Amino acid sequence: MKLHVKKVTRTDVAKEAGTSVAVVSYVVNNGPRPVAEATRQRVLEAIKKTGYRPNGIAKALVSGMTQAYGLIVPNISNPFISSMAHALQQEAFKYGQVLLLGDSGDDRKREKKLINNLLQRQVDGLIYISVDRHPHIELIQESGTPCVMLDRVDAKLNVSAIIVNERLAAFKATQHLVQHGYRDIAIICGPRDMLNTQDRIAGWRDALQQANVVVHEEWIFSTDYTRTGGYEMTLKMLKGKRPRALFATNELQAFGCLRALSEHGIKVPGDLALICFNATQQSQFNVPSLTAVRQPVGKMAKTAIEMLKTWSGEARECEFEFDLQIGESCGCTSIVKE
């Protein structure tokens, strides 16, 4: 038997409060006309008693605000991306906003559809990480929707962005391996056509060249930013001359690498040192703990939300410093921190 529940309306609230529907609307929408405090309290009590829920869509049409931001990411299964999404949701919630997630699955066509979908929902702003740093920014700019990119993009696009210098971060990570005395250093990177991959390879190359260390082009192993990618490229690496150290440009790749090395009885860092990019808390609790570049996710999320809340239409770029989180995988010793 299907149970039909009558939807509570503003008319029901007005009847319970002993006032007009217009007055109920003024209370719900905080205007446009003032309501006496005693009357306002009666209306609020009536709302509570009847269980009335304001129509969010109708309210958005009146106010022009949906109380929602959109978040477009390449792949939410990436621990770094999911940690960023969590931090952004926490910050948005402080302002009474919800975060609508769009996961493009590393697909540019799907990314474009998600952007159009969120724009049609008239979100109050977009936070956007593109698949390959070639964002569909023209769609967003034509709509007039505030947007903050969480990645470095072409300055000519005139878009607000929160960035970390990934080339410098990759340089520092590789330099750390060099300072341990390692000379044979390989790299497992992302797809070569992605701009962030190119930045990370360039940083790796910079560090080796500065130290007069031979750059072995055959030790550049390009794959997806996944555990499987890291695992398969490590197996491929082990078929040739083995390097003494390895820079994995993604935490998931590093986890896949560790699995492959373990299967072949290769100890980290005793037999092969390892360092990676974009650490999350998982890196600290891994065995061995990973030495890795770590971005200030909390600070970046706070700034992104603030940029949307104070949107003026002018493009702003905010660069954050990164940390090199010292673990055991490079040959250092570390203490796990909260």
TrEMBL record:
Keyword Hydrolase found: no
Matching CDD domains: HTH_LacI, PBP1_LacI_sugar_binding-like
Alphabetical UniProt keywords: DNA-binding, Isomerase, Transcription, Transcription regulation
Domain HTH lacI-type: 8-63
Keyword Zinc: no
Pfam name, any one: LacI
Enzyme class: isomerase
GO MF, one annotated term: transcription cis-regulatory region binding
E.C. no: 5.1.1.1
PANTHER family the record matches: HTH-TYPE TRANSCRIPTIONAL REGULATOR GALS (PTHR30146:SF109), LACI-RELATED TRANSCRIPTIONAL REPRESSOR (PTHR30146)
Annotated protein name in UniProt: Catabolite control protein A
